[in-house]
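quick q for whoever's on today - can somebody do inverse folding on this one?? i tried earlier but teh output was garbage lol. tokens:
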């Protein structure tokens, strides 16, 4: 099943109206950011399981893989919608932080949301600059940064592309476990389709478990001890809440 078809199927499973943007804009925002964070955590998993060297911040490397997968796995219209919403996710969190009066955690392992926003916009634009001028303009990408984005994309592709080529194949590397309390959520429906597609596309040196469960916080993370990605059930309602700011 194609990547955009996976999203349509997930929306249909929940009884949502399926148009060109899969569902309404708020639902599309939630879907895109669930997938974006999953791809980010997959980056951490691959770095661990493949024992990859990381030259720089691992969080930045995981962000790069997330937007690369959106660019590589999806048809252009679907990729564009995802890129808009994932970028908006970073910007919305930056606005929320500012409104709450919280300071930027420069000591943290993640870059500031504003910088993650521009990095995401730049990388996606750089993947197809001839067709994504409107995207760059809509997202306010400064011209001086836009000039470097194709080179930034090429560098990212040269780095992660080799890794993705090495694991391309079909198997049963990805396993999904869903807490029964969260089986009817959008997260669960998306992950069912996504894990099936991952098993069609990639084969890993060992099984990667993806678990949907309550964590007590709106988060997602990779646990290297158990080789599993935890998609916290609280993340979906959090995204729905910040989508209300639109």
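ok took a stab at it. sequence:
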């Amino acid at each position: 099943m194609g990547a955009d078809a996976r999203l349509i199927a997930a929306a249909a499973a929940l009884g949502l109206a399926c148009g060109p943007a899969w569902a309404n804009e708020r639902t599309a925002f939630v879907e895109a950011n669930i997938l974006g964070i999953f791809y980010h955590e997959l980056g951490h998993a691959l770095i661990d399981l493949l024992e990859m060297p990381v030259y720089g911040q691992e969080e930045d490397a995981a962000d790069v893989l997330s937007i690369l997968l959106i660019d590589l796995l999806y048809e252009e219209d679907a990729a564009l919608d995802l890129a808009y919403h994932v970028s908006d996710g970073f910007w919305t969190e930056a606005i929320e932080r500012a409104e709450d009066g919280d300071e930027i955690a420069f000591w943290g392992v993640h870059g500031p949301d504003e910088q993650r926003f521009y990095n995401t916009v730049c990388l996606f634009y750089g993947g197809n600059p001839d067709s994504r001028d409107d995207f760059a303009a809509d997202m306010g990408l400064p011209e001086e940064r836009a000039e470097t984005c194709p080179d930034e994309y090429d560098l990212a592709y040269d780095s992660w592309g080799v890794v993705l080529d090495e694991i391309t194949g079909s198997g049963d590397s990805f396993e999904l476990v869903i807490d029964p309390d969260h089986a009817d959520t959008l997260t669960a429906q998306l992950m069912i389709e996504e894990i099936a597609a991952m098993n069609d596309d990639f084969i890993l040196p060992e099984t990667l478990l993806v678990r949907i469960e309550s964590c007590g916080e709106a988060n997602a993370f990779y646990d290297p001890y158990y080789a599993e990605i935890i998609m916290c059930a609280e993340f979906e309602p959090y995204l729905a809440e910040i989508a209300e700011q639109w």
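fwiw The chain has one domain: 23-243. also Residues 57 and 107 are 13 Å apart (CA to CA). so keep that in mind when u check it
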